[in-house]
Structure formats: structure tokens, C-alpha cells
Design goal:
Helices cover 26% and strands 32% of the residues. By secondary structure, it is an alpha/beta fold. The chain has two domains: 3-243, P-loop containing nucleotide triphosphate hydrolases (Rossmann fold, 3-Layer(aba) Sandwich); 281-401, Coagulation Factor XIII, Chain A, domain 1 (Distorted Sandwich), CATH 2.70.50.60. The strands form four sheets. A six-stranded mixed beta sheet has the order 5-6-7-3-8-9, sandwiched between helices. Strands 10, 12, 14, 15, 17 and 18 form a six-stranded mixed beta sheet that branches. A three-stranded antiparallel beta sheet has the order 2-1-4, with helices on one face. The chain is elongated.
Length: 431
């Protein structure tokens, strides 16, 4: 199988625009007496640094990474919109790109006219565009708006028109950035079906998205970019899990910094009640949750775990008065609010008698078998009738990964067995 895309040692530098740095014009170069001097390192921002990879013909290739990691810059280089500062890029075949919302559209002219202009830019003759015009309009679902100037279109309508044009120009290589996230659910499904048909025809897809499940489902291989460098290239599940783990570790460090900042604020008397930093909190204050941590089996604070590892939820609490009615509770859910697991001391048979002063409560989970994904933790101390003393919603987030994939929220211990003539190929390691 031949390469549709070959990227070798590609770097891209942008000129830094900041106090103390001046744009270098022809006039300034003449005054300096040096027309050939390049940019000094301190005058540049590296968007990409020595990135190399290949994409085979008929392959779906995904890219993941944080904002500012260089994904969109790399996609623009593949599309020919930008030129690399150094390195070589070879793309074999006609390219269609959905990179920026409304890119290539003239806002003052109609959707009909923009179809013909975009089609011409993508290499089609006017006769070819006219032959495909009805199919483009039908796919976009914008028949009633074809004579309207596109400046009146919503963001979702921009995406509909842009994708409909790109997919009907018969590209050999389709470059898709995050724009599909803007469309409605029905159109997104239509786009994904068309992408599946596109791949079935042996065409090549490069997909950039922050939706990790989408990238994992539709990609044959994935590139993880971080700060302009290629961190990992390989099998989707392994690369996505490695990326999730790095994100979780960074979130853990941020959580630690935020916790230390709150402690400093409390010590200075600047702490407040209510909602702060996206954490909801309410209750009478008769007992106060002062800290929440996740620990591994060795007692180290962590916010990334592998499914099946032991996890300890540690809650520090202070009773403002002596209480004889108290319940400690914990709950784990997804960021979208799907409840995964929850319990409290009253449900598990602990009869309250007296609580006063400071205490530390631990919930020990010897094997937390959640499926790979992101989760949030709620903790609370309340009375037996549910009246909250202190309820902290989404007090912290954590990430679970697993050596093997799965869907849902529960990841039970399991194994496969086979009788008969069944042989499995070894999954290649990430490069």
C-alpha cells in the first residue's frame, strides 16, 4: 500500500509579536543593511518541531493533542494553505479540507455562488460543479437558503455547506478539523456515514478532534502532538490512553496547586462560601469538608488510575459542633452526570453516635473497575434524613485507562477463551 501523505522533519515557526519585538519589513531590512538575515530564535514561536510520519492510501489517520499543540497548523500545511519553515510534505492526490469555520466562503455572496467558487478552488470545472450542485444542496439541507448571502448563515449552516462541497468534489484525501462538532446531531451522523463510505472507497482521511472516542473509533492510527512535537504515533487505543494519562497527570498537578491556593486563602481569611472554580457547594456548615484526595495503595496522591487498581478516597472533615446525627457519602459520575457508583455510611450500616472536632474518613476501594474515561467525584456529610451539612459536587476529577478498551462505565474483570481454529494477530506497538 503506497503512501498518500509523507511528512519528513517538518517544522513551522511563527513570528513573535510582543513588546520589544518589531515586525521586520522590507524598509527595516534596507535600513539594517541586511536583506538575508532570518529570524532569530527569540523572535519566533515554534508551532511544529521536526514532525515526521506517513499516512497510507486508504488509511484513516487521527490527530489528538491539547489546544496550541500544532494540530491545525499541521493540517493547514497538509492542505497547502501554509508552507513549512523546514522539512518536506508530499500529498498524493486531490485534497479537500474542512479546517476553519467558513474558510473559503465569501460572506457577501450567496450560498449558490459560493458552491461554484469553492468547487473551482478544489479543482472542479464549472460543468462538473453544475452536475453535482443538486447533490450538494440536498446533502447540506440548505435548499431554502441557497440565494441568501452566507454572512446570514449560522455556524452550523457554514459547516453543512462546507462539508457538502468538500465531500462531493471526489477528493483523494479529506482533511477534517474540529468543525464537525459545530453541526447538529442529525447532520453529524450524516457526515460520519459519508466518511465511512469515503473510507470504503479506499480514500484517505486525516481527522483532528478533541472527541477522543470519535478519533479512536474512526482512526486506523493516531498521532499525539504536544507543544509542536510528535509524542507518539500508533494504534489508536494505546495513543489515546497515553494522551489521557498525560492530561490526568497535569490535572492532578493543577488540582494540587488549586488546593494549596485554597489553603493559603483560608489561612489569610480570604476564603469564601458557595461556588468557586466550577465546584458547587452547599449546606448548613455544622460540619465542613476541608479537603478531599485520591490516593493509590501506596498512599500517593494521584488522579489517574488504571481500571482495577486500588483507590482510596480520603475526606478531611471538621465538626463545628458536637453532632450525634451524621452520614458520610461519596458518589462517582461521568462529567455529563451519568451516575456510576455511590454509597454512604448509613446505607452500609454505620450507626452515628458522636462526632466532634477534626476527623479523617477513608473509603478504600481495593479494585475500582471503572471503564476508561473521565469521572467526577461528589462527597458529602449530612444528617440521616439527607439534610446537608456540607455537600461538595464535582470536588475533583480523575481519569481511568485500561490496557484494553471497553464501553459503558463498568469494567469487570474478565477473560476470553476460544475453542476451535481461531488465531489472533498481535497488535503492533505504538511507534
Amino acid at each position: 500500500m503506497s503512501d498518500a501523505i509523507r511528512v519528513e522533519g517538518v517544522s513551522k515557526l511563527y513570528r513573535r509579536v510582543a513588546p520589544g519585538y518589531h515586525l521586520r519589513t522590507l524598509k527595516s531590512a534596507l535600513l539594517d543593511g541586511n536583506l538575508t538575515r532570518g529570524l532569530r530564535p527569540e523572535e519566533t514561536i515554534p508551532a511544529l518541531e521536526d514532525v515526521s510520519f506517513t499516512v497510507q492510501r486508504g488509511e484513516a489517520f487521527g490527530m489528538v493533542g491539547s489546544n496550541g499543540s500544532g494540530k491545525s497548523t499541521l493540517l493547514k500545511i497538509l492542505a497547502g494553505i501554509l508552507k513549512p519553515t523546514s522539512g518536506e510534505v508530499v500529498v498524493d492526490g486531490r485534497v479537500a479540507a474542512l479546517i476553519e469555520l467558513g474558510a473559503g466562503f465569501h460572506p457577501e455572496i450567496s450560498g449558490r455562488e459560493n458552491i461554484f467558487i469553492n468547487g473551482a478552488v478544489l479543482g472542479l470545472s464549472r460543468k462538473e460543479i453544475a452536475r453535482r450542485f443538486d447533490d450538494i444542496v440536498e446533502f447540506s439541507g440548505l435548499g431554502d437558503f441557497m440565494e441568501e448571502p452566507v454572512k446570514n448563515y449560522s455556524s452550523g449552516m457554514y459547516v453543512r455547506l462546507g462539508f457538502a462541497i468538500a465531500i462531493h468534489t471526489d477528493p483523494d484525501v479529506l482533511l477534517v478539523d474540529e468543525v464537525l462538532a459545530v453541526g447538529d446531531e442529525s447532520f453529524a451522523h450524516r457526515c460520519l456515514r459519508r466518511i465511512e463510505e469515503f473510507l470504503a472507497q479506499g480514500k484517505t482521511l486525516v481527522l483532528v478532534s478533541h472527541s477522543l472516542p470519535l478519533v479512536q473509533e474512526y482512526s486506523d492510527r493516531v498521532l499525539w502532538l504536544e507543544r509542536g512535537e510528535a509524542r507518539l504515533v500508533g494504534e489508536p487505543r494505546r495513543v489515546v490512553d497515553a494522551y489521557r494519562e498525560a492530561v490526568a497527570e497535569e490535572e492532578g498537578r493543577e488540582h494540587q496547586r488549586a488546593k494549596e491556593a485554597r489553603q493559603r486563602a483560608d489561612e489569610s481569611g480570604a476564603g469564601g462560601e458557595g461556588e468557586a472554580g466550577g465546584i458547587s457547594r452547599w449546606g448548613s456548615g455544622q460540619a465542613e469538608i476541608t479537603a478531599v484526595r485520591l490516593l493509590d495503595e501506596q498512599g500517593s496522591e494521584r488522579y489517574h488510575f488504571r481500571s482495577g487498581e486500588g483507590v482510596v478516597i480520603e475526606i478531611s472533615c471538621q465538626a463545628r459542633e458536637t453532632l450525634d446525627d451524621f452520614v458520610f457519602g461519596v458518589a462517582v459520575s461521568t462529567p455529563r452526570g451519568v451516575e456510576c457508583w455511590g454509597t454512604n455510611t448509613w446505607l452500609e450500616g454505620f450507626e452515628p453516635e458522636r462526632m466532634q472536632g477534626r476527623q479523617r474518613v477513608r473509603v478504600n476501594c481495593p479494585s475500582l473497575r471503572l471503564a476508561p474515561g473521565d469521572y467526577v467525584l461528589d462527597v458529602a456529610v449530612h444528617s440521616r434524613d439527607g439534610a446537608p451539612y456540607d455537600y461538595r459536587k464535582s470536588v475533583l476529577t480523575f481519569t481511568m485507562t485500561a490496557p484494553n478498551g471497553g464501553v459503558g462505565v463498568y469494567f469487570p474483570e474478565h477473560e476470553w477463551s476460544f475453542d476451535g481454529e481461531v488465531k489472533w494477530a498481535t497488535i503492533p506497538e505504538a511507534e
